What does this fold into?
Amino acid sequence: MSFASPLFLAALVLVPLALVAYRRHERHRRVTAQAWATGPLLASVAPATPGWRRHAAPAAYAVALVLLVVALARPQATVAVPVERASIVLATDYSGSMQATDVVPSRLLAARAAAERFLDDVPAEIRVGLVAFNQAARTLQTPTTDRGAVRDAMRTLRPSGATATGEALAASLTALQRQTDAQGRRAPGAIVLLSDGASTRGREPEQLARRARRLRIPVYTVTLGTAGGTIEVTTPSGATRTTPVPPDPASLRRVARLSGGRAFAAADADALSAAYEQLASRVGRRDERREVSSAFAGGALVLLAGGALSSLFWFRRLP
It folds into this structure.
């Protein structure tokens, strides 16, 4: 919470002053009452006292005063709002290691299912594209609001080949730089990069991450898989051998940090879905300050009205 006109908060000093004045008034009232009658006689003259009800309306007025002062200071709250015409590129690894089944039913199928839920959660006005990569990167779908087109493109992926993370970032940045807003300016964008291993082909990912930062395009990375992940590889002689394919979260954390994004890690399908849920609420939105003075002023009016009505109901007069 911040305030556009914080100097008005100095008026809060009126609240303790008002409480002191109220206590003095109550003390004077008791002294005056005792001057007219002694203790035994006072009980017969005024047998019933209102107790806490006497203080209900003044308490409501005191809280209302606090809220009105805060409203004058123009309080502002930070809220996340969708960015108009923002674009997101899902850069999805479909290298051979993505066939590993340490994430059920396989890394690639779990990634596809989580990405489809991500498409459901992202605001409809956000454009989403798809870049798929193994030893090369392909832009399968430029950013669009057509979620079905992105899903169809994702379902064509079959695991094969090596990993070229840098090339995926380059293709994603190119796609995002071509997106414009209603005024013809480059629209805000972000990249969601999912991979399970270190880059083994093409340009260095760190170089592209620095470029993304200069362009103000954060890269959110999701590392998929467990240390025990393996795949079956057929050798040139026709034999089959088991090859370990552990993930490499350190390299993807560096990419996220250098670009100004954030890194996630997922060892199973549930964790992957949770990571994508967090991403859906984060990317494509910006923090915006909004004034909430009306909420405080409205609360003050409710308290003023409540205090007045309670006094009329109990004492047939306003305090």
